[in-house]
């Protein structure tokens, strides 16, 4: 004969209910902690809920919250940088601060064309920064066509590369073909025997950049620098253009080989030195503060 099953006592039922409540409370706390620490985000959130989680005041809610109220609006955004994006409204943000519609939800405190860009060179160190700067310089910052134009415009320029994919400077992404540096800003200089252009320019308080070297890679520039050529020839090598002690000028037969760092003991390099303030390598960009590398 099968034994009769006893019904749970009231005290056992009470313990089960209490246990369920405790588990639910712990799960709720865990979800809140994940949201506050930047964990996985839902596709849609209340703007005021987000403001509370990010410790923002309920009054004067940021502009980005208007996007959350219009879920049908879509934003294009950049995809080349690993951690940051620029959306088609010109905002810059971390990838995990995007809404499902592609728009930035929390914009980084970075001014367009500010940190990471050089207005002298019209170039930036990140594709996203370049796109945001390009959009800021147009009359219609919310235009999808403007975003597409700027995204394509900010791809690598022919001036910015050496040997296919080795960049001459950190300013790889340019939003304009025309640099803002006047020709008179750079000065011709013949380096002492055995010196590189980097060393020669630095000794006079300037800086050498390979992007300026093609403009002086011809025989006439030696005369302009005060050293007329007895003869002029062409050779391939990273140490040219240069002049020998016998007065023979040598220009570089392959412009992609132009280099500021190379020296040779028996020639004087012809250099084009920029003032320090126009040196693209002097662009300050606080990677640690923004954590975008």
TrEMBL record:
One GO term describing the cellular component: Golgi membrane
Primary subcellular site in the record, as a coarse category: Golgi
Domain Glycosyltransferase family 18 catalytic residue range list: 172-273
Gene Ontology molecular function, alphabetical: alpha-1,6-mannosylglycoprotein 6-beta-N-acetylglucosaminyltransferase activity
InterPro entries given in the database record: GT18_cat, SPRING1
Signal peptide residues on this chain, from the entry's feature table: none
Protein name: SREBP regulating gene protein
UniProt keyword annotations, A-Z: Glycoprotein, Golgi apparatus, Membrane, Transmembrane, Transmembrane helix
Membrane topology: Single-pass membrane protein
Cellular compartment(s): Golgi apparatus membrane
Transmembrane segments: 14-35
Family, as annotated: Belongs to the SPRING family.
GO biological-process terms attached to the record: positive regulation of SREBP signaling pathway
Pfam family, one: Glyco_transf_18
Superkingdom of the organism of origin: Eukaryota
């Amino acid at each position: 004969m099968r034994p009769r099953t006893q019904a749970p006592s009231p005290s056992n039922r009470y313990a089960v209910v209490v246990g369920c409540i405790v588990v639910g409370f712990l799960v709720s706390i865990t979800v809140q902690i994940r949201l506050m620490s930047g964990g996985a985000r839902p596709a849609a959130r209340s703007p005021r809920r987000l403001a509370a989680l990010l410790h923002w005041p309920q009054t004067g809610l940021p502009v980005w919250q208007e996007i959350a109220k219009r879920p049908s609006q879509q934003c294009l955004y950049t995809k080349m940088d690993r951690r940051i994006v620029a959306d088609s409204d010109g905002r810059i943000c971390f990838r995990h601060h995007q809404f499902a519609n592609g728009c930035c939800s929390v914009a980084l405190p970075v001014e367009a064309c500010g940190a990471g860009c050089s207005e002298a060179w019209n170039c930036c160190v990140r594709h996203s920064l370049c796109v945001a700067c390009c959009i800021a310089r147009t009359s219609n910052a919310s235009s999808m066509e403007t975003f597409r134009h700027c995204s394509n415009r900010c791809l690598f320029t022919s001036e910015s590369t050496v040997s296919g994919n080795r960049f001459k400077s950190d300013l790889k992404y340019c939003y304009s073909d025309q640099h803002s540096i006047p020709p008179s800003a750079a000065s011709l200089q013949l380096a002492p025997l055995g010196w590189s252009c980097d060393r020669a320019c630095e000794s006079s308080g300037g800086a050498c950049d390979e992007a300026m070297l093609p403009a002086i890679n011809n025989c006439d520039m030696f005369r302009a620098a005060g050293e007329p050529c007895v003869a002029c020839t062409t050779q391939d090598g990273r140490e040219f253009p240069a002049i020998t002690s016998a007065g023979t000028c040598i220009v570089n037969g392959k412009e992609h080989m132009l280099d500021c760092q190379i020296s040779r003991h028996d020639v004087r390099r012809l250099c084009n030195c920029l003032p320090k303030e126009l040196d693209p390598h002097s662009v300050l960009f606080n990677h640690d503060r923004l954590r975008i590398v």
